[in-house]
UniProtKB/TrEMBL annotation:
It comes from the Eukaryota. This is F-box domain-containing protein. InterPro entries: LRR_dom_sf. SUPFAM superfamilies: RNI-like. It comes from Mycena alexandri.
């Protein structure tokens, strides 16, 4: 069969690698656009066997599948046929699923779910949740390693959870990554999650009990990453010696809003001997609670990210324990935080000068709002250079305001300076 012609050239005259880059650039650039565009790109594979081979070998088609409740059964079958047995990563946007009978939801999406390695679903109404529950109740998802569920904020408290979701949650033997947003899954404490390595829980409409946190820590003992944002906690034992032990945890991302200050109780009770990265997003009430940290494992932290932290006592308490910290990122209120660390230096120096500065191993600093003067004062304490910082990344505001400053020039002479522009880093 002769290769089809586009304009004045044959399709096969362009190398496979070039076609792959073209497809990848289009799909990655338009990843958040309509489902129809994705399917149109996939239909290009029907032009010739040459393009079918290009599409089949290009992973971007199978890791960026975007579907919604209007996707036809023909389109689903087209995806399955073109993928030729590859594991799929799909994002499903379920809107007004009440326009489809429940059995049709299963007939359309069921065959695709069998093939999914990663599956993310966004639900916009109670009917769509019931429809999906019907589909998942029949699906043997042995391949599924990553699962994400999110519910629109306006319906998070307005419907009961279908019983089929409970059954579905106990049959995920290969699951490694789980993300839950505003949906009351009771099976996050299930023993079927023993293989879980990453758990994200965001904006739950109710507080988790101490027994539920214990079940998570026990059943997911191999978990390396835990993200808890705006999740309340209750029924914690009064005995401060009772701890939640995460023996394999390496990264903790933690925050609680003004309505979830009780979340600080969780942070007080965590024991994670391998913890290396801590991301903390707080508020004034949360700082007060977190001041009574019992985490002896803070000494293992090498990478710290702070946002919305403004309490001097909290900063002093936190940084006085970070003896191995190497990388610090401050996303909000960074000038105040740097001042708090400096205050900690002075206090430590007055109490026990041989101890030296707080965070003596800190070598990389990323700030969003602080000026070069703030950073220079942070590096130089009591008249001496006390930090071996060899990399400083400034936010876009600092880029605009302080490019010609004397302190910036001082930093250039002793460190690698970069300026951060929203989604990328550009070296100065």
């Amino acid at each position: 069969m002769q290769s089809p012609r586009i304009g004045s050239f044959e399709v096969s005259s362009i190398p496979c690698e070039v076609w792959s880059r073209i497809f990848s650039a289009i799909l990655l650039q338009l990843k958040s656009t309509s489902v129809e565009f994705y399917l149109a790109c996939l239909d290009l594979a029907s032009i010739s066997s040459f393009l079918r081979g290009v599409v089949q070998r290009n992973s971007v088609f199978w890791t960026g599948i975007r579907l919604d409740h209007t996707t036809s059964e023909y389109s689903i079958q087209n995806i399955i046929d073109r993928s030729r047995g590859q594991a799929l990563d799909a994002v499903l946007e379920l809107g007004a699923c009440n326009t489809l009978p429940l059995e049709r939801v299963w007939e359309i999406f069921g065959p695709l779910l069998y093939r999914c390695r990663s599956f993310a679903v966004r639900i916009h109404d109670a009917e769509s949740l019931e429809s999906l529950a019907c589909a998942l109740d029949h699906a043997p998802l042995d391949r599924l390693t990553s699962l994400s569920f999110s519910v629109h904020s306006t319906i998070a408290n307005s419907f009961p959870l279908p019983g089929s979701f409970d059954r579905f949650g106990h049959s995920l033997p290969s699951l490694r990554t789980l993300r839950i947003t505003r949906i009351p899954f009771v099976w996050i404490t299930s023993q079927s999650l023993r293989g879980l390595t990453s758990l994200t829980i965001i904006d739950l409409p109710w507080s988790l009990m101490w027994s539920e946190w214990q079940a998570i820590a026990t059943n997911a003992s191999g978990m390396k990453n835990l993200c808890v944002r705006n999740v309340g906690c209750k029924d914690f034992p009064s005995d401060l010696a009772t701890m939640l032990v995460f023996p394999s945890l390496e990264e903790l991302d933690f925050s609680f809003g003004l309505t979830c200050s009780s979340g600080g109780l969780l942070l007080r009770r965590c024991s994670a001997p391998l913890l290396a990265t801590l991301r903390f997003h707080g508020n004034e009430a949360g700082h007060i609670v977190a001041l009574s940290f019992t985490m002896a494992d803070l000494s293992t932290i090498r990478h710290l990210v702070l946002s919305g932290v403004s309490n001097d006592a909290f900063c002093y308490f936190l940084f006085s324990r970070l003896c191995r910290l190497e990388n610090l990122e401050v996303l909000q209120g960074d000038s105040a935080i740097l001042d708090s660390i400096l205050a900690g230096d002075v206090k430590l120096g007055q109490r026990s000068p041989p101890e030296g500065p707080v965070c003596p191993q800190l070598s990389s600093l990323h700030v969003s709002e602080a000026s070069p003067t703030d950073v220079r004062n942070f590096i130089v304490c009591r008249g001496s250079v006390v930090r071996a910082i060899d990399r400083v990344v400034f936010g876009v505001e600092s880029t605009r305001r302080f490019v010609g400053s004397e302190d910036l020039q001082w930093l250039r002479e002793r460190a690698i300076i970069e300026f951060w522009y929203e989604n990328d880093n550009q070296s100065s």
